[in-house]
Design goal:
By secondary structure, this protein is an alpha/beta fold. It is built from 4 helices and 34 strands.
Length: 308
Amino acid sequence: MKFKNPQTLQQIANLLEVDFIGDESFEITGINEIHVVENGDIVFVDHPKYYDKALNSAATTILINKEVDCPEGKSLLISDDPFRDFNKLTQHFNPFIASKNNISDTAIIGENTIIQPNVFIGEYVVIGENCTIHANVTINNNCDIGDNVVIQSNTVLGSDAFYYKNRPEGFDKLISGGKVVLEDNVELGASCTIDRGVTGNTTIGKGTKIDNQVHVGHDTIIGEKCLIAAQTGIAGCCIIEDEVTIWGQVGTNSGITIGKGAVILGQTGVTKSVTGGKSYFGTPISESREKLKEMAEIKRLLKERKNG
């Protein structure tokens, strides 16, 4: 998430009421999670296990809960609770805006786009030309939708990420400030849920078709010309490359990559990243031919044991 205007280290420190290490005029241009940080970004870290990863990332300002040596060319913000202060930054630079109308005045809707009854379109949504948005669809704030997109009834775009910190008093939510982006010629079935990114975008690429009751988690990137069948659940921060086929009731772990042209057979649990151009099946996931050989061998051994 980029700020509308660059900030200085001193300005951010004053906002959060924290100490800092580095030049007070050090420029900060946004905040992001570790997997999408860029030069100019703030990233937060609150566990020693991940200190090195954060300090050595592309982020140039690290919001951290311990004073450590500052890497050259970077700055530190020293906080007793980086998770809380990261939320403060999201709320300050991208506050929630409540809509007053079913179709917000700030929404931009392209020519020849059909909006059926009872659709909600939030603030600063952009919808392209020749789209069809069916009844009871919810498109929350800041979603971007391309041309020739079809969204079937009861689908929800832009729900918050399922991301919580476990505290003694209960679960503390990481506030979402990202977007959902649907590129041209995407079709979404009925009752799908597409969560927005925490700081970046959840993206569905050109020409991808998604069946009913599919969930896509925060910050996931789905490539072009993919097919995803009903009741599939894709966790956050996944990468689904182009021309992947995922059949029904598949579930994935977070942070995995499915390579270009892969086929994931129904009810598979994608527990790890897999390469493209192959067919996969089972939980834990393995190449379908290998899995079928394993099953045949187990059947043979059980038969021998029974007859022996």
